[in-house]
Amino acid sequence: MSLILKTSRVQQATTSITTVVATTIISSAQPLSAADLAHACGADLAWVNELVALGIAGQSDPDQARQGRFYSADLQCALEASRLQRDFGVSLDAAALILDLQHEVRRLKASLQALGLS
């Protein structure tokens, strides 16, 4: 599975708008570096290291995370943690708990649906 990471920068002139889009394909053969993950989330490397320490990013392959390689699932979790911090002012500890609870709710809903109870 690959995910395309898009970053946009908009410059506004009096009559036109220019959009510059840079893309990066994320796959098992081409993971994100820790610096790329930090950049995608508008954060720094210390923040990414904290994500790894809290288990928000790098859960699927802790060895790869220690080497600074991250995948699309890590990016999704990091972006969600960043959104929680920005929108609700939560700490990364709280974001980790919220993300874990969201994952559990999705898992339980899928189990109920598989059993025909939903």
Tell me about this structure.
Helix content is 53%, strand content 20%. It is α+β, with helices and mostly antiparallel strands. Strands 1-2 form a two-stranded antiparallel sheet. Strand 1 (3-12) and strand 2 (17-26) form a beta hairpin. The longest helix is centred in the last third of the chain and has 23 residues, at 92-114.
Brief summary of the model shown:
The chain has 118 residues and is an alpha+beta fold.
Please describe the structure with a list of short key phrases separated by commas or semicolons.
118 residues; alpha+beta; Multidrug-efflux Transporter Regulator, Chain: A, Domain 2; two-stranded antiparallel ribbon; two-stranded antiparallel sheet; 5 helices; 53% helix; 20% strand; globular
**What's the pLDDT, averaged over the residues?**
87
Q: What structural class do the secondary elements suggest?
A: alpha+beta
The helix-strand sequence is EEEHHHEHH
What overall form do the CA principal axes indicate?
globular
Report how far the terminal alpha carbons are from each other.
29 Å
Q: Tell me the fraction of residues in β-strands, as a range.
A: 15-25%
Integer tally of domains: 1
In CATH terms, what is the fold-level topology?
Multidrug-efflux Transporter Regulator, Chain: A, Domain 2
Q: Number of helical segments? A: 5
Low-confidence stretches: none
Draw up the topology in text.
Elements: E1 3-12, E2 17-26, E3 32-33, H1 34-41, H2 45-54, H3 62-66, E4 69-70, H4 72-88, H5 92-114
Antiparallel strand pairs: 1-2, 3-4
Helix pairs in contact: 1-2, 4-5
